[in-house]
Amino acid sequence: MPSRPPRTSSPGRRAFLAGAGAALAALALPAAPAAASVAAGPFGRYGSPAARLSARTLYVHPGGLGDHTSVQAAVSAASGTGWTLVLAPGTYRETVVVTAARTGMTWIGASGDAKDVVVVYDNAAGTPKPDGSGTYGTTGSATVTLQAADFTAHAVTFANDFLRTDLPGNPGTQAVALKAQGDRSAFFHCRFLGHQDTLYADSMSLTAFARQYYAHCYVEGDVDFVFGRATAVFEHCHFRTLVRPDLAGAPYGFVFAPSTARANPYGFLATRCRVTSEAPDGYYKLARPWVPGSDTTAWPSLVVRESVLSAGTDAAAPYANMRAEYPWQQQRFAEYRNTGRGAEVTVPENRPLLTAAQAAAATPAAYLGDWTPDGTLCL
Predict the structure, then answer these.
(1) Peptide bond connecting 245 to the previous residue in cis, omega within 30 degrees of 0
(2) Which helix (H) or strand (E) holds 17?
(3) Tell me: the pLDDT tens digits for 207-237?
(4) CA–CA separation, 265 vs 324, rounded Å?
């Protein structure tokens, strides 16, 4: 997708990115593997253009100390399979597309801390395209679009810093940070920052059951900010719901909005995660089902298990409908052994729970099948 010329972020956007970094720093999650100090150079222990990890390693540095100054330039140069991109600390204001032919690509944030390497842009669904051909739409708003199979990212931030005040009165406020479509896509110690529709966990077609794995990641947003039809496992992740200054009351939004294909036995699984909130108590729903016009037979699936739900989650009514003709009660929504004030079962009919036998079948291994994601960096 075309990018507009880079420009300096407004103070509000800078605060948006910095605030998310502070929130992640406060997490009680295992740290990413330690990288070399800055003294070792902008690429740390991952080599340099003069000392490459391999012939298929490219180095990206915004100041010109690498092979390329933009992520998209490096992706375009990495034709074929099995490339590694080492990203030096910096903010890369651009849109990026990894096409389906570029399989087996790995992105590594050189510092080992995702807040240091930020790929960000601010297109929204309602943003007019520069060529006058209309607006971007939800899919076209993505800062990063990943179509290739076997993609892996370590310690990278994917962000969309569009704000609703950028397009006052425009309903097209969906603004995707990452759209992941490839099978066997894995993300370790990454951040996903946005507001509405932050993380689009999708597939390349209605019949493709793309598997995705997110470990020790941080995701923030407000409306449907984890959505799509992928088979996606979130393990030890932190989901953060944001304040909505444009709204006077609850609900502010929804964490999950799966659109799982009816033929797919597995949708979203969040295990050993946390859901926290900047908003007042009870102002967020845990999920609502998305049955898109492109697949009216969708049967959304979500399991949240052994996770901590803070008071920001509406314990009495954690689920809601997106459209009345597809009530959440008829979808595949369930929980198991969650804790926290947002997990209290005050209205039993509103909290579908798995039995122990059902929970034994709702595991990362069951969802991912013959694929075991490996977060080890082999250097």
Answers:
(1) no
(2) helix 11-25
(3) 999 999 999 999 999 999 999 999 999 999 9
(4) 24
